[in-house]
Amino acid sequence: MKTYFFLLIAIVLFAGCHKNETKPVVACEPMACTLNFASVTVKFLDKDGNATAVTDFTSVNARTKTKVPYSGANQGYVGYYTVANDSNLKDIAQDGDVVIVTAKNPASGQTLSTTFKIAGGCRCHIEKLSGPAEVQFTK
């Protein structure tokens, strides 16, 4: 009877064991970082050069083909949009990823796209390597 009990316990324990399928963790070198929270932003301007709200704003990592989380309109600042921020460090490659930003001017219906190169990974903060500060609609 005891043998069956221990055998049953062993079967239950081994049945609960399985290989965890997790992403490999990249070990970052220790470094001293500030507590600042960095963002990469873009300002959209209408044809007259005034800051304008846009619709259908997307920020997509070209390497992974996924939308960059936490991107979008900056509350209280018309025309300013976050392309990526420090919350995205691990989603963006250390050497930089191309991020494609697309937005539509609701007044004219014009859609524009532009690209940024943004570095993340083991850096202290997200960093814009290239890309415009402002994007102006022509219509």
- Strand adjacency order, main sheet: 3-2-6-7-8
Estimate the global geometry from the Cα principal axes: elongated
| Total individual domains | 1
Work out the number of β strands.
Answer: 9
> In terms of structural class, how would the helical and strand content be classed?
mainly beta
Compute the CA-based radius of gyration. 23 Å
Straight-line N-to-C gap? 84 Å
Name the beta content range. Answer: 25-35%
Q: Helix tally? A: 1
Which bin fits the share of residues in helices? 10-25%
Average pLDDT, all residues = 87
Tell me the major beta sheet. 5 strands, antiparallel
Order of helices and strands: HEEEEEEEEE
Poorly predicted parts: none
Layout of helices and strands, plus pairs?
Blueprint: H1 2-15, E1 39-45, E2 55-61, E3 66-67, E4 72-73, E5 80-85, E6 97-104, E7 111-119, E8 127-130, E9 134-136
Parallel strand pairs: 1-9
Antiparallel strand pairs: 1-5, 2-3, 2-6, 4-5, 6-7, 7-8
Question: Would you kindly provide a written description of the structure presented here, covering whatever features stand out?
Answer:
- It is a single chain.
- The protein is mainly beta.
- The chain has one domain (38-136).
- 10% of the residues lie in helices and 35% in strands.
- The protein is built from 1 helix and 9 strands; from the N terminus they run H-E-E-E-E-E-E-E-E-E.
- It has one helix spanning 2-15; strands spanning 39-45, 55-61, 66-67, 72-73, 80-85, 97-104, 111-119, 127-130, 134-136.
- Strands 3-2-6-7-8 form a 5-stranded antiparallel sheet, with no helix packed on it. A 4-stranded mixed sheet has the order 4-5-1-9, with no helix packed on it.
- It is elongated and about 85 Å long.
- 19% of the residues are buried.
